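Worked problem 6 (solution included).
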Amino acid sequence: MGSLDQYTVSQDTWTTEVFESKSPISLAALHAYVGSRLPPTTLRAKGILYIQEDPTHRYVFQLSGKHRIQVVSTGVWPCAPSTQLAVIGTDFEFDQVQKDLETLSQNDLASDALACADLVRADDRFELVHVTASHIEFRVRCPVTTLDETMLRHHHHIDMDDLNEQLGVAVNLAGGGGGLVLSLPRPDVALLASVAGPPTLRTMWPLIDLHATKILHVVRRKLAECMCGF
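Solution. The predicted structure is:
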């Protein structure tokens, strides 16, 4: 039997390249980088993000195998904001990796805002909160009841902020570079997505649709089984 070493990557061969910026980066640039410019031999990426679409909050970013992403707000910035992103992998072509990292500073990606907004407006599971040329902000809603969010939470223990957080996490962990950012703090947690560049809300829509269907199926079942009269 061969040595197990042939199936693992020695930490001695890992290489790290770092991108730093005191200017905010756009979601569009972040999605474009993860979707098409991340080195193919990347093992993981992690860091702190200063996001243009939500500049007052500090975000922790992690990317692991199959482009599974975690983007978590840690609250308002306790210091001067900046982006510090480290890409870790093997056999990097350093000049190319650094050149690709510099694309995180781009702000001139073509916008698909109208088509993305139409997707949200046409689906009664979602509420369109805000849209610009660079990003869209939306929320999951419950289309199977006339109860407002306060009544849902009080009578059925269904918290729409929880459901929005669940959707964001599910899409980001599904792989493929999908990236939804949770707009915090509570109440009224919303989801932010890029509408510019190659990967946008529209390219993520199949994942959003799939996981929203799963989440709301549980809600529908809970409401159908409730005997409280509301």
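Discussion: Residues 1-10 have pLDDT under 50 and may be disordered.
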